[in-house]
Design a protein that fits this description.
Number of domains: 1
Distance between the termini: 15 Å
Radius of gyration: 18 Å
Strand order of the largest sheet: 1-2
Low-confidence stretches: 280-299
Number of helices: 12
Strand content: under 5%
Helix content: over 70%
Shape: globular
């Protein structure tokens, strides 16, 4: 894959992640959060089965459990924590905590896999996170919502490393399909335990659901997992700092929420952070491979 195509796909998947915030917010007028997200991922996984059933399947209980764990972390853990945290903190604050993920990926990769990142990478991650905070103009306080939101970021980071470690042995379509199904089923179980499931059918709610299923689930996860397999997870995850920026801009377009001056300042910091992490040929020095693919021997 050429660098230009790789970069274009990174922009696409982070754009879809950002768009999911305002689109999901619209959808909450028609369904409770766990139920809406559960429907989203079960439908997305169900549609993907049409393609996945013709692809190489996971073999043995161990591989099925690995996919299920990725789904519970990536889908149930992140979505569950994001929406639960909003009982105490704002959606913007929840987004800030969720997208601490790139920093956590580098920390976990350093501690657990022996990966060694240069100082420039750490400075870039710090700049990107600062840009996220500036973009939202928020101050986080330590409370249950902040702790739960941070746990969502930990789930996101753990799933990122697991996809990097286990993903190459799975067919891409099969991995995407079955992890969404596992996460979606778990979300529906959470909904049954904690909510009164309902979905109000209107033209708007159906359009929202289709967008969440087709674009923000199927396309987003397929592209994201592929990118994680091709590149270093820390460097790839640094582009997640763009997702909340895209969320603010798409909220302005779709919901009419005002864009403040600090969005431009935050965007500049985010772009600087991404450049620092990815702007050199060897931003991360591998002392231990995260996966067996040849492309991962150096980053």
């Amino acid at each position: 894959m050429t660098p230009a195509r790789y970069f274009s796909l990174l922009i696409l998947t982070t754009l879809l992640m950002g768009i999911a915030f305002p689109v999901g917010k619209i959808g909450l007028d028609y369904a409770p959060p766990f139920f809406l997200m559960g429907i989203r991922y079960v439908l997305a996984g169900g549609l993907m089965i049409l393609f996945a059933r013709r692809r190489p399947q996971p073999s043995g209980a161990k591989e099925w459990l690995q996919i299920a764990l990725i789904g519970v972390l990536q889908t149930t853990g992140v979505m569950g924590c994001v929406y639960t945290s909003m009982s105490w903190i704002t959606s913007a604050e929840s987004a800030i905590l969720t997208f601490v993920n790139p920093l956590l990926v580098i920390i976990l990769a350093t501690c657990l896999t022996g990966a060694a990142y240069r100082a420039r990478v750490w400075v870039g991650v710090a700049a990107g996170f600062a840009g996220v905070v500036v973009t939202f103009g928020s101050q986080l306080e330590l409370n249950p919502g902040a702790i739960i939101g941070f746990l969502g970021a930990v789930c996101f980071a753990a799933a990122t490393l697991l996809v990097k470690q286990w993903g190459p042995k799975f067919d891409q379509i099969a991995l995407t399909t079955y992890q969404m199904l596992a996460g979606g089923i778990a979300l529906l179980l959470l909904s049954a335990a904690a909510e009164r499931p309902r979905f109000e059918i209107t033209a708007t709610s159906v359009a929202v659901l289709l967008c969440l299923v087709l674009l923000c689930s199927i396309v987003q996860f397929t592209v994201w997992f592929r990118l994680l397999q091709l590149g270093d997870p820390g460097k790839t995850s640094s582009f997640l700092f763009l997702a909340p920026l895209f969320g603010v801009l798409s909220s302005w377009v779709l919901l009419g929420e005002p864009v403040k001056w600090y969005v431009a300042a935050g965007g500049a910091l985010i772009c600087a952070g991404v450049f620092l992490v990815n702007g050199q040929g060897r931003g991360a020095r591998r002392t231990a491979q995260l996966a067996a693919s040849p492309s991962d021997s150096e980053a």
